[in-house]
Amino acid sequence: MTVPDHSAPPRPQSDVSSAVGLVGALGLCLWILFCHFYPEVAPALGLDPARGRLTGPNAALAGLLASAGPMVLWSVLVDKVHLRPSTGIDWSLKRPLGDVMDISITKLAGLWATWTIIGCLYFLGRWYWNDFYAISMQVLANVMVPVFFLSVPYVLWLDRNLVEPKDASWHFGAMLVGREAYDPEKVRIHLRAWAVKGFFTAFMIAIVPAGFADLVGRDWSEFVHQPAMLAGLLITMMFVFDEQIGTVGYILTMKPLDAQIRSANPHLAGWVAALMCYPPFQVMQGGGPIEYQINTRDWAYWLDGYPALMWLWAAMLVLLTAIYAWATVIFGIRFSNLTYRGVISNGPYAYTRHPAYLSKNAFWWLATLPFLVTSHSATDAVRNTFFLGCVSAIYYWRARTEEKHLLGEDAKYRDYHAWMQHHGAITSRLVRLGQMFRRRV
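Now predict its structure.
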């Protein structure tokens, strides 16, 4: 029996309250229910029930608003994040517009040039012209003009209240204009942050409609007594929560919400490790060099005929997916890869520093069972097992590169990292096991 260590120091406080993600998930849940039961509720609202369940891309994109709205309101009205010093904003400044006009014009030049570069890369990247990215390009094309015009009053309003209005965007603009001295490191910070936002926002928007349509369009009543089908439905639901709230995180990178990208990973290894997991650079699926699903079938195929084991396996897979989704939802409006946007130490991050990577990889091993193959080939079994091991190794590499970035950015994260080493429910046990193993060897 383990005796609780009451002398342990308190865990560093998270920069995002648990309630933010919770209200976002609740808003999204209500929207999913409305879309699924639309034929039943439409007559009461004076709407046309003949449309059937709302599974289209517009309904999926509206889910972003359903989750973002409650999170923004809670962040501002309850957590009052706009008053935090970490925003870089002092609302009492209210500088005269003339005092910041030149700064704002330079910053706008930097922002507009950045958006133009991203647009050109979208145009040049062949993968952005396939069906998968079609919805992303359509959405971004539709918002391009409104965002362009809204950026002017937004930047002018913000610069009047920023403690230091000459931020990284300004330095990039100053480099382009060529009239004032600029800091090359601030330029690199600006470009890295927008590289993350440009690459991952397009990807996240692209994956939102399919999962939403799959979840909302199913007949839920058919799945209650089938463990594999019920697990599939619940897993789809968890992924929808992950995709929707994760996408909101990429969109709402705004200083008034204290959700700005404070820095993007400056280490090349971190970018390589992350991009290997996403198209068009993905190496583990779609014929990639370490694809691990050759002649495999999913868990339900191999466990068919063993009902008790199927229910147990289904429960484990749903639990792992729930942890994975929780690890995204707990970020609220701050989720994104390769960035530092504050320290998250609550939710599943109270137990391990990398709950998403642990649960995702455990899910893949249990769902795929790579050592079982329909070809009865030992070669296929060994290769699949080896390559899935390589995938797990890539995610371990990602975790280490992310820690290297965050440890160099924030003393609070260093405190959290040290606390988890000694007191984390999972991490501390792994550390002790490693130390015992080394002593025995």
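The beta strands are 263-264, 339-340.
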